[in-house]
Each structure stands twice: as structure tokens, then as C-alpha cells.
Amino acid sequence: MMVERVPILKIGDVLLVSIQIDLQDQSVLALQEDLAEKISATGAHGVVIDISAVEIVDSFIGRMFATIASISKLFDADTVVVGMRPAVAITLVELGLTLGGVRTALDLERGMKILGVLGRQRRGER
């Protein structure tokens, strides 16, 4: 079976992941691996995961978003999930998933602003 892959685009020192497919467990696992490899290869300091096209999540996919953020953090990259639909937010809360460590923003522009502020703080700390 062919696993659909989610494209990962590099914009400056940020990786943009725009999920436009129906997420299956295998595609989420592939994304986790692909993203870890891309962060390592590029040295990106931020990851934006756009889930505006995602209509349904289950507990596995919800946990994987938190896992992806944890993996990104190990590579010194901050993660922002953008574009969450109200139904997805409600489902995550009903499943008891808080997405610990994952910042969220209403849209891509706000997500990029969050990473911009974090980027300036990071440069100031070094």
C-alpha cells in the first residue's frame, strides 16, 4: 500500500507542513519521520503545521501532533499548529488531549508571527 506523504516546504528557517490529505495512521507516522529528517538536514528553527483542511482527528493523530512537537523541540525547533477547525478542537478536548508543548494560532500569518518573535528571542539569547 502506498502511503500518502505530506509535503514539507522550507521558508527561511521555518518548515511549513500543510496537511491537505485525509490523515491515516501511516501517513502521520511518515510525516513524523520526514519532518525529523528535514529539521535535522536544514537546521530549521520553526515548524508550522497547517491543519485547516483537517476535518477529523482521532486520539492517535492528536497524540502524534504532540509527539511531532516534542521531536521538533529536540532539534531546537519550535512548533505552531495553525488553522484548527472548531470541530477538531472540540474533539481533542473531548478525547482529553491537550497537545502539551504545542503552540497554536488561528491562521498561518499569526503562526509565522509567533515564530518570528521566538526567533528574535532566540538570537538575543545566543
UniProtKB/TrEMBL annotation:
Coiled-coil positions are none
In the record, which residues are listed under signal peptide?
Answer: none
CDD domains, per the entry? STAS_RsbR_RsbS_like (cd07041)
Which Gene3D superfamilies does its entry note?
Answer: STAS domain (3.30.750.24)
Q: Where is the STAS domain?
A: 4-115
Concerning PANTHER family, the annotation shows: RSBT ANTAGONIST PROTEIN RSBS (PTHR33745:SF1), RSBT ANTAGONIST PROTEIN RSBS-RELATED (PTHR33745)
Which protein are we looking at?
Answer: STAS domain-containing protein
Its taxonomic placement starts with: Bacteria, Bacillati, Actinomycetota, Actinomycetes, Pseudonocardiales
